[in-house]
Amino acid sequence: MSRFEWTEALEIDKGQIDADHKKLIEIANEMACLDDLENQGEELRRSIRKLYEYVKNHFTREEAFMLALDYPGKQSTRINMRRSLGE
Ligand SMILES: [Fe+2]
């Protein structure tokens, strides 16, 4: 499976949000490296849980970032983020 890569085109704030996105790419790449998924069910479950928890925390930070900037699309983005978490 191909790996995800950080590029400067993804840069948002040169701070916490970028650090979060880099970490999310790292977690996604860990998952992409899992092979023989039938025999790695427990590792896959741990990776999915790790990704879910990291995304959830990231969305909280990203919401605060959007509010601080008074980002015009903050309401619809917030709804989409919550929806993607199944909330
Ligand atoms: Fe994000």
Spans where pLDDT lies below 50 across 5 or more residues: none
Beta-strand fraction estimate: under 5%
Helix content: 55-70%
Output the helix-strand order: HHH
The number of domains: 1
Q: What's the mean pLDDT score?
A: 91
Number of DSSP helices? 3
Overall form: globular
Number of DSSP-assigned strands: 0
The set of bound ligands, ions and cofactors reads: fe (ii) ion
Structural class: mainly alpha
Major β-sheet profile: none
Radius of gyration: 15 Å
| Separation of the first and last Cα atoms | 30 Å
Summarize this entry quickly:
The protein has about 90 residues and is an all-alpha fold. The chain is about 65% helix and about 0% strand.
Task: Characterise this structure.
With 87 residues, the protein is mostly helical. The chain has one domain (14-84). 66% of the residues lie in helices and 0% in strands. α2 packs antiparallel against α3. The protein binds fe (ii) ion. Fe (ii) ion (FE2) is lined by residues 21, 58, 62.
